[in-house]
Amino acid sequence: MEFTIKSGSPEKQRSACVVVGVFDNRKPSLSADLIDRASGGYISEIIRRGDMEGKLGSTLLLHNVRGTLADRVLLVGLGKERDFRESEFRSAVRAAVRLLNETGSYEAVVYLTEEKVKRREVAWRVEHAVVVAMEAVYRFDQMKSQPAEVRRPLRKLTLSVPQRSDLGDGEAAAARGLAISHGMDLARDLGNLPGNICTPAHLAERAQALAQDLGFKCEVLERNQLEELKMGSFLSVTNGSDQPPKFIVLEYSGAGKKQKPCVLVGKGITFDSGGISLKPGLDMDQMKFDMCGAASVFGTFAAIAELKAKINLVGLVPACENMPNGRATKPGDIIKSMSGQTIEILNTDAEGRLILCDALTYAERYEPVAVVDIATLTGAMVVALGHIATGLFSNSDSLARALLNAGEESFDRSWQLPLWEDYHDGLASNFADFANIGTRAGGSITAACFLSKFAKKYDWAHLDIAGVAWKEGKEKGATGRPVPLLTTWLLSQENAA
Ligand code: BES
Ligand code: MN
Ligand code: ZN
């Protein structure tokens, strides 16, 4: 979809559709009021008759409204005016775009971006309108033999800003929103692909193609190189699989050579059967999404490269399957990680931490400013925070703060949990340096504690995205989170440097 920014009166727009808001006390927004005046009170008449009450997300499509130059006027409910905040703004835009995409308009001019959102400037509104619109029209039908056609898909949105002096900010914000959306689309596509297609080799190929397209570096380390690096923990997870493991290294340079990079580490389990500690059958198909951390790293690289951000960024993706066979790692086995620390595997289903820990050790060579790993790590995370917030853990308060802020800003929110020493006891082992699982209680925290043992040499944060990376039920599919959070955080680094 294409986006442009414009400033001007709604009744004067020559367009297939003009989109304006109505508040819940039956109060037209400023732009709805302009149309009302031009049409001799037509809008207020409709409101008075009770056909548009302004309930958040409700819509009413009108044709040939007199006094206006557009073919249609779409009224969108904004909810109560004093409750109109980030989430409400996004819901209103989503409702409008969904409707526009299903009706006859190829194009529309949206005035919702002129509505005031508490604490948010016009740039925020434009960026979020773009992201929400792109999210709403996303489809994944590449695996269908006969994709259902959208008859008249929405091709172009013009977003209106209050003043001509807002045009520059609006355009920059639209570019940011579009880059984030492209990153999310990529992350969603990769997440939605099935495990028989999206193998470690497929991820490696896609990473190489992306690097080629966008002009950054990509190197793929093969099994023999991983053996040389002594990545015994990562390799132990791949033992039971016929798919060769890949360790994908991405390097984007947008700043001077001397500037140390941020490093993103993404969990790339292309299918998690649990291994010998086999998972139950119910919903096991969802474990094709266990590479969504990796997908979010690729998506963030796509966004950062598209924006030519002035930062240096490294991406590390250990990719493999977790499968059971005669060569698979067994409960009780003891392995040696790249760091030299030994690990007793008490449950082969706690495999994410085993591939991430070697990547965290590998990250040391970059002397990074900060390392952030992103992983669908624990089912316990879904219990703790549901499908709304990402779990955030960090050994640095300032890094945690920066990520929490980026989450608020991008409405891709996270919530911090503790990493206190008291939780580490759970990982004690009688035979190795420590075990790969603790007790069931606080499972997300002990998993993060495990990772922290490999991240002592730099500022580090861990994002457990198990609850937010995909949706279940009717809307089943990858969400592209946390690409908005990561991209927003990295762009803030650009200004910090
Ligand atoms: N990939 C799963 C975590 C997961 C499960 C994410 C369900 C989303 C939904 C991870 O590899 C896993 O299996 N974790 C185990 C850890 C346990 C064995 C300590 C879990 O959460 O059950
Ligand atoms: Mn697992
Ligand atoms: Zn897993």
Structure characterization notes:
By secondary structure, the chain is an alpha/beta fold. The chain has two domains: 158 residues, Leucine Aminopeptidase, subunit E, domain 1; 316 residues, Aminopeptidase (3-Layer(aba) Sandwich), CATH 3.40.630.10. 35% of the residues lie in helices and 20% in strands. The chain contains 14 helices and 21 strands. The strands form four sheets. Strands 8, 9, 10, 11, 12, 15, 16, 17 and 19 form a nine-stranded mixed β-sheet that branches. α9 packs across α14. The longest helix is centred in the middle third of the chain and has 26 residues. The chain is elongated. The two termini are 33 Å apart. The model has no long low-confidence stretch (mean pLDDT 97). The structure holds ligand BES, manganese (II) ion and zinc ion (ZN). The site of manganese (II) ion (MN) has 5 residues, from loops.
CATH architecture descriptor name of the largest domain:
3-Layer(aba) Sandwich
The helix count comes to 14
What small molecules accompany the polymer chains? ligand BES, manganese (II) ion, zinc ion
CATH classification, class level of the largest domain: Alpha Beta
CATH topology of the largest domain: Aminopeptidase
Q: How far is the N terminus from the C terminus?
A: 33 Å
Q: What fraction, in percent, of the residue positions are helical?
A: 25-40%
Mean pLDDT metric? 97
Largest sheet: 9 strands, mixed
Query: Uncertain regions: pLDDT < 50 for 5+ in a row?
Result: none
Shape: elongated
- Structurally, the number of domains stands at 2
Tally of DSSP β-strands? 21
Structural class: alpha/beta
Strand portion: 15-25%
